[in-house]
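LOG
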Amino acid sequence: MNEPTGGLDEHTERLATELLRERLIGRTIISIAHQINTVMDSDLVMVIDQGTVSEMGEPQELLSRKGMFWQLFRGIKGV
C-alpha cells in the first residue's frame, strides 16, 4: 500500500489503521509511507534514502540508534 492514510485527518487515520490491522491479521503488509506515524506499529521498517537502504529494524530500535529514522521522527514530533 502506498500511503494508505495519506489524505486522512488524524482521527480517521487512526480508525482506518485499526481496521486494516484487524482485517489483515496474519498477513504480510508492505506499506510505503512518508508519515512516521503510519509505520510506528510495524514489525520491521526499512528506511530508503536515494534508492539505498540506510536503516532497517523495529521502529523503537531505529529510534534508539538516532539515525535517519530518528531524525525523521524528531522532525515530525518537534523533539
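LOG (cont.) second protein
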Amino acid sequence: MATAGSRRPRLVLNFVLRVQGSHGAGWRHRSSEIERVPTLDYYADLARTAERGVFDSLFLTDTLAASANPEDALQWPLDPVTILGAVAARTTHIGLIGTHSTTFNVPFNTARQFASLDHVSGGRAGWNVVTSSTDLAAPNYGLDVLPEHDERYRRAAEYLDVTIDLWNAWRADAVVADRAADRLVDTDGIRAVNHQGTYFSVRGPLNVPRSPQAVPLLAQAGSSESGRDLAARYADLVYVQQNDLDEAVRFRTDVRSRAAAYGRRPGAVVVAPGLIPFIGRSVREAQELQHELLDLHGTDRLLERVSTVIDRSLDGYALDGPFPVDLVSDARDTGQSKSLAYRIAEYTSTGTYTLREVLAWVDSGSFHRTIVGTPEDVADGIQHWFERGALDGVSVIPPVLPRSFEQFVDEVVPILQRRGLTESSYGEGTLRDRLGLPAPVSDESRFTGHFDTLPSVSQHVPTA
C-alpha cells in the first residue's frame, strides 16, 4: 500500500465534469445526453468511465446562481456534495472532489459535509475550495455584491484553518465501542477547537468521527496572487488555466516555492492545468468537430462577443487568415481574475492562430489549453508539458459529453499507459494514500477536552 508522503503516480489524471460539456454548443451536438443531466445515472456512468481510465479523481464544478446565459441553464443543476455521496455508492476507486464556496457557507457545515462524504466513500473525498467569483450569487445570500477579491481570500484562509481544526478534533482512536465497559468513546480524544478569529467564532468539535483521510483532499482553482498563495499554503491539487508552456513552468515553480516557504514539501502540491481535447482519427477529423461546434453556436455571435471584449472591430478580417494580435497588444493582467481580452492575448501571443481557431478556442469553454488532433497528438502534448516541468497532472475537460470523454479514456489513456506515464490499475488506500499526499495537521495547543466543559448529561435534551 502507498503511504502518505510516498511517490505518487507518475501523472495525475483529473476529470473535470462540466455536465453540459466544456463547449458552449456541446449540449447541441447529436451525441450529447443533455436530457440525462439532472439524473444520478448520468453522473455515475461518467464516473465509471473515469474509473475505466484509472483516473485519480472526478472534479465536480459548481456555481451558486442560475446562469446569466440560458444556454448554460443545466451546467450546474445539482449540489456537488449530494451527488458525489450518491456516486460514491456506485464507484470503488475514483476520488470525488466537490466545489464548495467559503464566501456563502460556514466552516462547521463544510467540515461535517466533507467528513461525511469521506466516510461514505471510504476515504475518497475532496473539496475544491472556491471563494466564488460572480456577483449573480450574492443576492441569493442577502448581499448586493461579492466582497472584494482579496477580502474573500483572507476569509478563505481563516475558513480553511477552522475547517482543518474541526476535522482534527477527533483523534483517530476516539471511538472505543467497548460494550462490556459501557465506554463508547475516549472522552480525551474529542476536543473543542475554541477558534476566535476575524471572520469566525467556532467552538467545535464536529459530531462526526475522524474520517479515513482525516482531512479530505484540498483542491484550489485560480492563478491570482491571492489564489497562488492560498494554493501554496493549503492545496493538494491546483486546477489552473494555462495556455503557454513557459508560463505554465513558471506557475508551477512559483507555487512549489511558495509551498516550501510555508514549510510544506514542494512536491506535495499537484499542479494539474485544464486540457480540452478534440480527438479524431486524423487532425482534420478533430478540426471538423471543433468547427461543427463553432457553427452550432454561431460564428457571427462569437465574432461579436470577441469584438466586444477586446473593444476592437473584427470586420474585414478573414476567418481563415491570421488573428490580428495587434488588437489585443494593450490587454493587461490585473493580478486578480484575468479578463477575456488578456486571455486572448496570452493565447495568440505566438501569432500562429487563425481568427477561426481563436473563435473556436474561446467557444471551447473555460479558456483552457486546447489540443486538436489524433489520440497520439493529445498524448504527445500532455507528455511534452509533463517532461518540461509544466505540470504534475492534467485536468481533462471534455467538450462534448459523454463522447469526448469516452474517446479520451479509450484512445488516449492506453497510449499514456504504454508510455509509462499513468497507472494501469488502482493502488490501495485512500485518495491521499494513492497520491502520496500527507494530510495537514492542526496546532492543538488551544484545544480543550469537549466533555470537560459541558453541563451534566441530564441537562442535554436532543433536538431535531
